Amino acid sequence: MSAVERPQHPTSVQDAWGRSLTSLRVSVTDRCNLRCQYCMPEEEYVWLPRETLLTFEELVVLTNLFTLQGVDKVRITGGEPLLRKNLPAFIAMLRQNSRIQDIAITTNGVLLAEQGQDLFDAGLHRVTVSLDTLKPERFKALTRRDTLSQVFEGIESVTKMGFVGLKLDTVAMKGYNDDELIPLIEYGKRVNGEVRFIEYMDVGGANDWSPDKVLSRKEILTELGRYYGEIEPVVEMSSAPAQRFRLSDGTIFGIISSTTVPFCSTCDRSRLTADGMWYLCLYAKSGLDLRKLLRSGRSDEDIQSIIQSVWRVRKDRGAEERKELEHQSGRRGRYIEIDRLRQDPHLEMHARGG
Ligand code: SAM
Ligand code: SF4
Ligand code: SF4
Fold it and tell me: Per CATH, is 23-352 categorized as 3.20.20.70?
């Protein structure tokens, strides 16, 4: 995409390729109550030390500095964000910043029925629930926990709580859930949620990743087309990762094709971990320690200008680079060796929030 076609934010800082800084994913914890095989396949991890976790006040200070550089969308993630105590208080604090137009959360849904109403009342705008299967036994095998009924309960209660714009994110994997695309779309229709299929990515803890497990955008469209008939792309100018499609009955679904058709050229998002590391790309192996700057008493102006200068030289295009490897060597192996993952928890998907 050329710089002319790329959606640009009028007031936001641009990176080296003209990409705006408009979206921030804030991870509030690296802990999780599931053990999804593609994300956190082991039971125990090296967790971020408790004293390094930023308080809500600190997270708000940093988020507010990001909004001065153009961020107007904040997504709360984790680990499992609903494990962080008092999350509604954090949402309410973020809502005081009028530059933030949209506050969303990505959750596995297990604690959503319990906590959703307080989050809505605190001002959370939108909810995305990760849902890879509708089958309890499969859920248990995939997540090592037997809590699918709680996830359903959460999903089915969000509309009553007042939320609109529910999304259901499914990592589509061959040999795991490739036979559930249609049931998931049908479930989405029932609960008024837009299903988005995410291609399986070789990030962080995805130790079991291999190219033959990736269900590609093309394959997803073929499979759905066979059942539903004509599928038309929704034409829209957006830097959102999902490309959206419409079935003939009007149902909209999305595909996030990070692996086979990466969209780095329009990527406007970066990630803040629960301990204040700032990553410019999901695949980045190093980040900027904003906690250190904050806790060493650097002024807001200093931190803001550091954020600005770091973004200005950003050239990250991790998913595209991974894809290019396929052509260079004919194969795409493990991204990060397990020993290195064990030494640095930040490299895990559950630390940087997906
Ligand atoms: N725990 C929350 C949840 O699962 O929704 C939020 C954090 S999770 C890391 C965020 C998203 O990353 C989830 O939708 C999850 O499915 C996705 N994810 C994790 N590992 C992935 C992988 N290897 N490939 C594609 N998506 C992945
Ligand atoms: Fe699964 Fe999300 Fe937990 Fe990762 S962080 S194991 S994707 S629920
Ligand atoms: Fe953005 Fe990196 Fe993902 Fe590409 S791989 S879309 S640059 S976060």
Answer: yes
